[in-house]
Write a structure and sequence with these properties.
The protein has about 100 residues and is an alpha+beta fold. About 30% of the residues lie in helices and about 35% in strands. The protein is built from 4 helices and 4 strands; from the N terminus they run βααββααβ. The protein has a 4-stranded antiparallel β-sheet. A hairpin with a 5-residue loop joins strand 2 and strand 3.
């Protein structure tokens, strides 16, 4: 199994970045319970696109979690906050990795 990176990009739909982050509390708690989940980072680019990056133990675990999330958390307020037409999702195995000795 190879570690995988999941990247989702999208614009927000009628809310602030701060409101969106706060609304992700249920998603974050759910992610922490998923097999293979390692970490999540979110950023907002200068063009207002949100970049949501997750690290998984494998692409299969990340893909499985994405399908479960859409079913198990279909009522999360987060979904309505995303401009679905702007959303792009991808996951790929890591092919190269270096890490500094500091965090």
């Amino acid at each position: 199994m190879k570690e995988a990176i999941e990247i989702t990009t999208f614009k927000l739909n009628g809310c602030t970045y701060e409101q969106f982050i706060a609304a992700n509390a249920d998603i974050d708690a759910w992610l922490l319970r998923q097999p293979g989940f390692r970490s999540r980072r979110m950023a907002r680019r200068s063009d207002a696109v949100i970049v949501d990056m997750l690290i998984w133990d494998s692409a299969a675990e990340g893909t499985g979690a994405m399908h479960r999330l859409m079913d198990e958390l279909r009522d999360s307020p987060v979904h309505a906050m995303i401009d679905q037409a702007s959303a792009s999702w991808t996951i790929a195995p890591v092919r190269h990795h270096i890490q500094s000795g500091t965090s």
